[in-house]
Amino acid sequence: MKTQLKIALFLIFTNSLMLLLFGGSIYYFLYNYSYTDFYKRLETRATIAAKYNFDADKINAEPFKIIRKEHLEKLSDEKEYLYRVENDNDLAEMVKKSELPMTFLKEILNKGKATRQMGETFFTGIRHESNNQTHIVVVSAKNYYASNHLLFMRNVILLGVLFIALITTYLSFFFSKRIFDPIKHITDRVKQISKDNIHLRIEEKKNDAEISQLISTFNDLLDRLETSFETQNNFVSNASHEFGTPLTSIMGEAEVMLMKQRSPEEYQQSLMSILGQAERLNQITQTLLYLAQTGYTNKRVNFEILRTDDLIWQVKEMIDKLNPKNNIQVDFSLLPENPKKLKVMGNRQLLSLAFTNILTNACKYSNNKPVVVTIASSDDQVFLAFTDHGIGIPESELPFIYDPFFRASNTRNFEGYGIGLPLTRNIIKIHNGQLQLSSVVNEGTTVQIRIPLAKIP
Asked: Model confidence at 331, in pLDDT bands (50, 70, 90)?
């Protein structure tokens, strides 16, 4: 069942139920009131009848005649029963003459008054004391209001409930359709979007905040999907180039060597060239494997408490051996006095790899100009800043620096694969940290890293 139909049926059901309860409550109170009021009217008539018939010697009966004639409306099938009671035999005689129940008469004598309904006829009886005699006065009549007016009122209420229920049904379907039409429009529009026209977007509705927010969310998702497709295409293109170059070199070298017989020295030189290209392929493959592994944040990684300053020194010592001409400088001016503010929960191998990637790139693209590493901390984070004075990155290319195999347009004279920075960002993400890069062409690049401090008692 569609959600639109569910909502419409729910509104119809709840509104109809409330209307029935409301109408039923009105009818119930009117019903009780009509019966209570009718019994009071019968009691008034019984009192007047008793005074008129049994107290005439004491008071003038004429006022009672006027009241009964002018002010008391004649009730339907109205009857009066007047009896003097001296003993139980009188009660039995009254039962024979009036066919009133004995229990009803005894209740009148015991309580002073009583009411009873027999079929459509209502009875009210009172006990009247006059001249040391006990009399029972019973007045009966049919409740025309209860039998006719209440029936009319019930029909009016039922018809009103039915009419309002029909209006509610129409309005429920109308408004549920109005509510779900934008969602249907979004669904239809999304179905039209595929990988071939992923540039299309859903038009936003300015007058509906919730729908606009939903559309904005969908459009943001489409933006990310489009970027993912572009990244995938760029990755395939760049990966094909990076893998194709050494493979072409290997195949070309092998074909040249097979064209004729060569000397052992030529074969050795050719094999060394092929080995170099194969090592290049292996390095690219290993780096891609690291990139894939660090891309899955759910992958289990062994963490331990590490001092970031120690890691920086270890990485610097390793780079000093590989590139003695580097000019890496560590700035101690912001180093915290408390060593606990330098400790993080991390994986030694991954963090060392991330710092190595940043520092080797800084040295490479700055032609071994000074590279400054600054270490600082706050109450909950360690800050690392790597600043070089190299070639920088064009501003228009900064959004693509984390795409695998992407290399800036001004790096063609430098060897590299374009995998180090995406790998470094993944490693920092695994450590719940943040990586930010700012760069100006021909001025240099600054990479800032923030990593949460280890919770040490």
From this structure: very high
